Amino acid sequence: MNIHTVNPLVHKRWNDLVARHPRASAFHQRGWLEALARTYGYTPFVLTSAPTGESPKRWHRFLPCLELDDGHSFSLIPLCRLHSAFLSSPWHDYHASWSHWRDVATNIAGFIPLGFCVFVYLSSKPAIKLTAAITIILGFVTSLTIETLQAFLPTRSSGMTDIITNIRGTAIGVMLYRWPFTQSC
Questions:
Q1: What pLDDT score does 170 carry?
Q2: 32-56: string of b/e by CB count within 10 Å (b at 16+)?
Q3: I need a labelling partner for 122 at 20 to 30 A (CA). Which of 3, 21, 75, 163 fits?
């Protein structure tokens, strides 16, 4: 059996095939794939046993995929990874785009409340010493747990950048509580 590669962004009848497939979703439509290609630089492709010029109605076996910019491939139907990286390094996560910096800011902002609230709680317990260190360690453990679970989810990726930014968010939450303005409230 020969395997052929098709580009769903230029194939005229790709959306028709997706509409008829029982396991397809909106995430397989051309519009979504175009958004991923523009935003993240991913390259969508389809592996099929049908010759490239053949009508999609005759495609009995096909596998839509994305090639990520780090060289890994990601399957869309069925939802499983062909290759995955666990806790990818920060230099592999970095993209010179606003979406990267938005993700960094979101991760930091998302963990500020954790750092603030846990530090407030631990500070109210006189028997607990080193509350700032314990709070930041808890932020690290929470982030590591999230990233470990994301490694097993088909639409998520696991990266050290997220852990670093989540720890920074936790530390900022601790510093906000220690800030003189919050102490006077």
A1: 96
A2: ebeebeeeeebbbbbebebeeeeeb
A3: 163
Entry pTM: 0.53
Q: How far is Cα 61 from Cα 20, in angstroms, rounded to an integer?
A: 14
Task: Name the token pair of 112.
Answer: 């500020």
Q: Which string of b and e fits 114-147 if b means at least 16 CB within 10 Å?
A: bbbebbeebeeeeeeeebbeebbebbeebbbebb
Which tokens hold the place of 167?
């720890």
Mean pLDDT of the chain: 77
User: 51 and 4 in contact (C-beta within 8 Å)?
Assistant: yes
Q: Is the pLDDT of residue 79 over 60?
A: no
Strands lying side by side in the sheet with 43-48: 4-6, 43-48, 62-67, 73-75
